Amino acid sequence: ADGFNSPVRKYAGIESYGWAYDTHGIVATLFHAAPGPFQNPNTVAFQRFLPTGPIAFLPLSTTATSLVWSTKPPLASALKAADSRVLAGMINAAFRLPAVSMDYLHARLLEAQQSGTPLSLEQFTEELAFRERSDGIDARSALSSLAPEQSATGIPPEGADAVPPLVTGIQEGTVASFPLRFSHAEAYIGQGAGARTVLVGDAAHTIHPLAGQGLNGGLGDVEALVNCIETAVLNGADIGKRTVFLFCSYILI
Fold first, then answer.
1. For 151, phi and psi rounded to 5 degrees?
2. Closest by CA position to 12, among listed 202, 190, 187
3. Contact 12, 6 (CB under 8 A)
4. Residue 201 three-state SS
5. Helices and strands, counts by H and E, the chain
6. Which one, of 148, 178, 141, lies nearest residue 163 by Cα?
7. What is the value of pTM for the model shown?
8. H helical segments located in the chain
9. CA-to-CA separations, 211 to 24, 45, 69, 207, 208, in angstroms, rounded
10. Residue 229 burial by CB count (10 A; 0-12/13-18/19+): exposed, middle or buried?
11. What is the spatial distance between Cα 102 and Cα 96, in angstroms, rounded to a whole number?
């Protein structure tokens, strides 16, 4: 279970194949206000599917959330290089604006990066306000990224629970991006010089992180492996023997 570039898989001589998705994932830790007494607790994950890729909002605590935004490499580069306050605004907009307006903001961000003059917070805010007015979004509604922050005791606007809380900041040093790709090991069980080896998780297979399928697949691997080991122990077998896992291969593979 040592990850996509698994040294154990290499030492075991197990080949892996796959391809790139032409997509990068952007991750960061986001900060936002704690929910008020009339709001749901920050325990709900949100995901929106944009033409450029899905963006996910994954709760960590009352006031912190993890971001996973899958998008095209040039846009990922521009988002990562942007001022953290502009990135926070882009994240808020990505959950609220129509896709056509997001395309416009993406284009402005890319233009600014290509010109060598980053988009300032003032410029971004002006562009965002224009898009919200064009889309008929009330500045006091839950769909406005520029709405004044609700007080801790105030009643939230209608539909507030349909979108994540507004991001107010990003933890320094947490913004990163990485290429997304598919890969699959030719076998999960080693043999010969790689005997007594079983691959699980990303060492065995990697997929697009959509809806946590990679994590769920890895947990499924571990469950299957535990079942095989438990069966071997109960029957007095050597838990490292290849035949033990071949017997359970209908579960593992």
1. -70, 160
2. 190
3. no
4. helix
5. 8, 7
6. 141
7. 0.81
8. 7-11, 73-81, 84-94, 99-115, 121-134, 213-234, 242-247, 249-252
9. 16, 10, 12, 11, 9
10. middle
11. 9
- Per-residue tens of pLDDT for the chain, all 253 residues: 999 899 999 999 999 999 988 899 999 999 999 888 888 889 999 999 999 999 999 999 999 999 999 999 999 999 999 999 999 999 999 999 999 999 999 999 999 999 988 899 999 999 999 999 999 999 888 999 987 654 445 788 888 889 999 999 999 999 999 899 899 999 999 988 889 999 999 999 998 877 778 888 999 999 989 988 998 898 888 888 888 887 665 544 4
Query: Which tokens in the block code for residue 131?
Result: 């898009």
Looking up tokens 């699959």 gives 184
For tokens 């994540």, name the residue: 164
Take residue 195 and report the two structure tokens written for it: 């005997």
**Tokens standing for residue 222:** 């571990």
DSSP conformational letter for 164: P
Structure-block tokens of residue 32: 């936002």
